Amino acid sequence: MTEPNISDRAGEHLLRELAPQVLGAIVRRFRDFAAAEDAVQEALLAAAVQWPDEGVPDNPRGWLIHVAARRMTDHVRAELARRRRETVVVMQSGESVQPDEIPTDLDPDDTLILLFMCCHPSLSRPSAIALTLRAVGGLTTAEIASAFLVPEATMAQRISRAKQRVKTSGVPFRMPTETDRAERLDAVLHVLYLIFNEGYATSSGPALQRGDLASEAIRLTRAVHNLLPDAGEVAGLLALMRLTDARRAARTGPDGELIPLAEQDRTLWDRDAIAEGVELITRALSQGSIGAYQLQAAIAAVHDEAARAEDTDWPQILALYGLLKRMSDNPMVALNHAIAAAMVHGPSAGLDLLKPLDADPRLAHHYRLDAVRAHLLEMAGDRDAAIARYIAAANATTSIPERDYLTTKAARLRT
Amino acid sequence: MKYMLMMNAKRGNTGDWDISTWPLDDIKAHIGFMKRFSKELSDNGELVAAEGLALPSQARVVRAGKHGAPEVTDGPFPEAKEFLAGYWIVDCESPERAYEIAARASAAPGKGGIPLNMPIEVREVMSAPPVDL
């Protein structure tokens, strides 16, 4: 035992860091992902209880692997006994593995392989998110349940079904083939992006826990970036998260009300996060092969580098949205492109760009189209039309802070 | 996405639900269905909450009276032909899935085992994350 004690925070951090490494070693040896994941959770819980009192062992990874492997051996024995009772004779590989025989060396690929598994396209996004947070993030089921505001039993079932799904889909525990690699990496990045957004964007509910989700997403994305430093989109996503998260403190007022970018107190922005984000995105963009996350990060960087809202380099943002629009068929990108056009060429240019979007079935009756149109009509001085659009948007959003913001906008224009 | 599924039942002649006049086996079948249904949602990892509400004869309508003191009258609102019998809150992937769950609830067995086809009102819970403005 090296340290007499560890703080809860540092201990938690270490455990989360080690979780995928330990799981990788156990899955590699015993193959049964679902059971291995349970065994590792038990080992993590045991560590969370024992280490603060007894100190962190000299080789914490080895300690966890040892404990998890013992649980796993118990599980295999119980499973064999059960099968014998049912008089079914099945030879199971790994049944005679001794905990001491498992190599405890770090295999850096394990974290990546696990991410590929947990974000497999055969899983629904909510399942992939929950499984990723537990198996790779090392969070407990209770923590994940409280972050998503569902009962622990429900989250436990979601995770166990996701593991079952991984099992039946027969995904092997190894790197995806070269041909699948890009697509599978996209799926991983999308899940990490969703986790980030859930934590960053939601200001209702237990804010602290949900904010932790954003930090967790950044931590996991950073881990992927460290393993794949040359992957431009990974760097782009990490930069996007850092540059967006940098504004978190300025984004809501004392009562949780939303504060739009143009009205935020920019002295509250996290300068270190911005510096890191800018550095990441600058390097990624210089390496060729540009993707959607990199462009979104570049746009976030332009906003973050403006000392005042009126200093924002809108022509550059407009050009970046133009590129993004050509790359992805996302109607939300088209909306933001229209806003940038309005900032550069005036509100009527933006309103013209909105017209064709009325015919897009993905946006018809979508509150965001009404909200953007309201904003541009307000810029154009068409007060009555702006009020009507703000109210239409407020009535259709499913976010409470957004509804409050839009209702207040309409009320201000009326007075 | 979270949805609240509200089960509305018709008020019988007495003003309460007429389940108490069903044959025993039909009542048992109905209760059994509801229990299995909740278990199934929970096993799916979709159940957030589910409650059945006491019958309308137990309901009271409350308004703030003088100095904010509660002013209580017997409820529910007499003009209502239906009443809220219970609700589920589910967390599922799409509105279509919420409609599927609602349709299952609507088909709960009634008298003689015939599906009740109760109207289930499906309302999204305001839990979407706001976008950056």
Q: Sheet bearing the most strands of chain A, described? A: none
**How many separate helices of chain A?**
19
Can you tell me the overall shape of chain A?
A: elongated
Shape call of chain B: flat
Task: Provide structural commentary.
The complex is a heterodimer of chains A (415) and B (133). Chain A is mainly alpha-helical and 415 residues long. Chain A has helices at residues 8-30, 33-54, 60-85, 109-118, 125-136, 141-147, 152-169, 178-201, 207-227, 232-245, 248-251, 271-286, 292-305, 314-327, 331-345, 347-354, 367-379, 383-396, 400-414. Chain B contains 2 helices and 6 strands, in the order βαββββαβ. Chain B has helices at residues 24-43, 95-106, and strands spanning 2-10, 47-52, 60-64, 70-74, 82-91, 120-124. In chain B, strands 2-5-1-6 form a 4-stranded antiparallel beta sheet, with helices on one face. The A-B interface holds A 124-127, 130, 148-151, 153-159, 161, 197-198, 200-205, 244, 251, 258-261, 332, 368, 397-403, 405 and B 1-2, 42-49, 91, 93, 124-133.
Give a short overview.
With 415 residues, chain A is mainly alpha-helical. In chain A, 70% of the residues lie in helices and 0% in strands. The N terminus of chain A is likely disordered.
How do the strands and helices of this protein lay out in sequence?
The complex is a heterodimer of chains A (415) and B (133).
Chain A: H1 8-30, H2 33-54, H3 60-85, H4 109-118, H5 125-136, H6 141-147, H7 152-169, H8 178-201, H9 207-227, H10 232-245, H11 248-251, H12 271-286, H13 292-305, H14 314-327, H15 331-345, H16 347-354, H17 367-379, H18 383-396, H19 400-414
Helix pairs in contact in A: 1-2, 1-3, 1-4, 2-3, 4-5, 5-7, 5-8, 6-7, 8-9, 8-10, 9-10, 10-12, 10-13, 12-13, 13-14, 14-15, 15-16, 15-17, 16-17, 17-18, 18-19
Chain B: E1 2-10, H1 24-43, E2 47-52, E3 60-64, E4 70-74, E5 82-91, H2 95-106, E6 120-124
Antiparallel strand pairs in B: 1-5, 1-6, 2-5, 3-4
